[in-house]
Amino acid sequence: MKYISTRGQVSPTGFIDAILMGLADDGGLLVPEQIPQLSSDTLKQWQRLSYQELALEIFSLYIGDEIPRADLKKLVDDSYATFRHEDVTPVRRVNNGLHVMELFHGPTFAFKDVALQFLGNLYSYVSKKNNSIIHILGATSGDTGASAIEGVRGKQGIRICILHPHQKVSKVQELQMTTVNDSNVLNLAVEGTFDDCQRIIKELFADVEFKHQYHLRAINSINIARILAQTVYYFYAYFQLANQGHTEKVNFSVPTGNFGDIFAGFLAQKMGLPINKLILATNENNILARFVNEGVYQPGEFKGTYSPSMDIQVASNFERYLFYLYGEDSGIIATLMEQFKTEGSITIPGDVLQRVQSTFSAYSVENETCLDTISEYYEKYDYLLDPHTACGVAAADKLMADGEITVALSTAHPAKFNEAIELRKIEQTYPKQIQALFNKPQFQRVVGGSNEEIKDQLVKFF
Ligand SMILES: N[C@@H](CCOP(=O)(O)O)C(=O)O
After folding, report:
1. Measured from the CA of 219, which atom of ligand 1 is nearest?
2. How much distance in Å is there from the Cα of 307 to the middle of ligand 1?
3. Which residue among 113, 143, 163 has the greatest number of ligand 1 atoms within 8 angstroms of its CB, and so is best to mutate?
């Protein structure tokens, strides 16, 4: 399989070079040259596979023979052996039509572990095999950072620097990142928002000379490996329901910030998974919900919410979706992204908007509704939702029709966001791994948001 850029200025490249490139060198995002198409027979054959077996099949389609199957199997098995649940991403029925897929059974209690345990092991494999230098630079609104650090801490040949917005992540998220004292980890707390952190890393990756000189690698969802790994659980959820006798198409409701997770669902649908609606749930930072409902992509004013991981204005993976929306025409995408840079917005015509709405439904969840949903599900169903999952569940409640089956993606464990949970006077017991964080010293440097200052830190660290 080869990978091409959404902006068309990069020669088709193999899987390993694509993951090492991260952001495409022309500033676009890498996508597979062709999306594999699955027959209904293949779907039937996959229906009873374990999570690990399924991941191996899906990764093989996108990696081809670049990694021998036995090596790939070991990477997959090692990556998911760290999960606390034997199903890796179990699906639980909560009420009639609503199921929750728990994606938080990995080491840092968030869905990011599903891809970042794998990517961490993959980087280590590539570093040993090809003698590649792996200097990771990432931005986080809380979950990606902890998960990426956990995926590579202490690993030979790898260094990681994570930028997070100072005091705009939850206490547990901050502790998960900053209590790590391995010498290959650097945490920079940036005075600004997640969008500032993401803009900085994208600008540094776009500085191709700097990127190559310092061997910068990405762990955010700009890296195509993240998307591919997240595609697996859409299939797995569908198969778990099919094994219980649900043969109809399924809706997925996805708490959305950077558009990576829901894009993975979109990719699964394009591969042939019978998905009905993709429900896009935002918090009050609702640029994506406005896009789906009105056809205008324009950042609004930043709002701090109870779901800080989704406090994002400019969604990284939106460009990948635009590429498919516009028939894989990289010329149009390059023009639209240039327009976004100069004018600050993209408006799509009515016929294109109709195509968007045939795939996505969207709802923007207000702060109070998020908390109300947490209370309601706790009282009625004895199920404690984290505030991001609560946004997904609130959107599903709003947008699913009677008789439909919806899987809401539960993206994090509630213990990561007690700031929101305690507002509703709900007392939760922390898992022991989270409780232990409160007694540890923290290691982080607070920095301003200039590219030069970050570059300076990186040069010293790498
Ligand atoms: N919500 C994310 C933001 C970064 O998104 P990513 O999927 O591109 O890594 C976070 O928790 O850091």
Report:
1. 9
2. 12
3. 143
Alpha carbon distance 269, 265 (integer Å):
6
Residue 429, exposed/middle/buried by CB under 10 A (0-12, 13-18, 19+)? exposed
φ, ψ for residue 25, nearest 5 deg: -65, -15
Reported ipTM: 0.99
pLDDT tens by residue, 307-337: 999 999 999 999 999 999 999 999 999 999 9
CA of 316 to the centre of ligand 1 (A): 9
Say which residues have a Cβ less than 8 Å from residue 296's Cβ, sequence separation at least 6: 290, 345, 346, 347, 348
91-109+225-424 architecture in CATH? Answer: 3-Layer(aba) Sandwich (3.40)
Which residues contact residue 214 at a Cβ distance below 8 angstroms, ignoring those fewer than 6 apart?
Answer: 135, 458, 459, 462
Q: Measured from the CA of 226, which atom of ligand 1 is nearest?
A: 7
Which residue from 432, 185, 392 is spatially nearest to 309, judged by alpha carbons?
Answer: 392
What is the spatial distance between Cα 163 and Cα 449, in angstroms, rounded to a whole number?
A: 10
Binding site membership of 144 for ligand 1 (Cβ less than 6 Å)? yes
Per-residue pLDDT of 183-214, as tens digits, reads 999 999 999 999 999 999 999 999 999 999 99
> pTM here?
0.98
**Do residues 237 and 250 lie in contact, with contact meaning Cβ atoms separated by under 8 Å?**
yes
The ligand 1 atom nearest the CA atom of 143: 11
Query: Domain extents for the chain?
Result: 91-109+225-424
| 91-93/98-102 β-pairing | antiparallel
User: In 3D, which of 186, 136, 140, 187 has the Cα closest to residue 412?
Assistant: 140
Pocket residue to mutate for ligand 1, from 217, 221, 319, most atoms within 8 A of Cβ: 221
| Ligand 1 pocket check for 142: Cβ under 6 Å | yes
Active site residues: 112
Residue linked to tokens 């776009």 = 206
- Tell me if 289 sits within 8 A of 338, measured CB to CB: no
